[in-house]
Specification:
Blueprint: H1 10-40, H2 47-78, H3 81-106, H4 109-137, H5 143-172, H6 174-192, H7 204-207, H8 211-227, H9 229-259, H10 265-289, H11 295-315, H12 319-346, H13 353-382, H14 384-408, H15 410-413
Helix pairs in contact: 1-2, 1-5, 1-6, 2-4, 2-8, 2-9, 2-13, 3-4, 3-6, 4-13, 5-6, 5-10, 5-12, 8-13, 9-11, 9-12, 9-13, 9-14, 10-12, 11-12, 11-14, 13-14
Length: about 425
Amino acid sequence: MGTVPLFRQRNFAALWGGQLVSILGERLTYLALLGLIARHTASFTEPYRSSLLLAVMLGVMLAPVLLLAPFTGAWVDRCDLKRVMVISDLLRGAIVIFMPVLYLATHAVAPVFALVFLLFTCNVFFLPAKSAITPEIVDPAQLLLANTLLSAAGIAATGAGFLAGSWVVDHWGWPVALYINAATYLVSVVSLLFITYRPHETRPATMAVSVRGYLHEVREGWGLVRGSAPVALGLLALGAVWAGGGFVHVAGNQHIQRAASIPGVERLGGLMFVLTAGSGLGTWLVNRHGHGRRPSTLLGGGLLLATVGLTALAVSSRFAVFAVAGFLIGLAAAPVFVLSETLLQLGTEPRQRGRVFSARDFLMRLLLLVGTSAAGWATPRLGTGATLVVCAAMVGVIGVVVLAWGHRDPALGATKVPAAD
């Protein structure tokens, strides 16, 4: 398998194609929900109500992960990963269809948020299964490249989704964007069915059904996260990105909208497209020039670069500066996502990966909620610009910690980015 190009391998091509389409649709959902909130807050001109609804929206997205992810990983490790992904996508497609139906019937936001909760409950099962199945269908020598290509698919889908989705929401309405997203989930299901996957062998004790045994498996997964310095380093850097994302979701959205001459989500979509372009370049650079380098250098340096972008976003009201800042933030975040994914995959056995990636998802969403809550409190009191400066300072401090930790810890100093085949 190692000598065959990844896109000529049916399993990887099917996974990549399905992710490309479904992620594109997911970006439409995010923009559609922003469009719905904008309609209820007069284009984000009501500061307290805007901050509250944005915080509630993200809280509803995060709640399933915070409630279930610590426990679902052990269940995912027991299952056929392909089956988990297919069923999750089928459910997500059905849920998205009912969002505009419920809103048009009730003219209330609460029922839509209830469906958002169910949608992200499906994600709790889908995401660790996707991360766990990749190293089982790809040769280890091609794993970094596979993660890079999957990340690139996400970046391309995000850019196209934000660019096209913002136009769809502003011109056709947010319900149409959700109907399109439902169709993308069905395309993803068809693509995933082409994967030929044999579930990994598990020990009989692992398959035994008992509360004590199940909780032991959950604790074992958390122990794996705590026991590896490279994994902990990657999670620290990744946590800075997720917490910063919470600040940008609340303060950044309002900062950009209030600077716009004509409010709407098209401006946000254009900036998000620029951000994904930076992510694409960053992903390419990591795969091209990152081999043999210390992960701490790439991770810490990326966070410091993100600090520059966040500061520029905070102190300006010009679209051109927003675009440059978004490009820098995307360029900086890409190494964090690619490297942390690869380090966790290489540092765990197949039967443990569901638990480890569920633990990662729990921690990251918790930090996103912390960032969102902090920004929701600070933005009406300090203003959008000052809140973004606080975010930039936090990310910069963690970047310095990552660099220092990587150079002082002998285990981390010996860790290098794996070479591709």
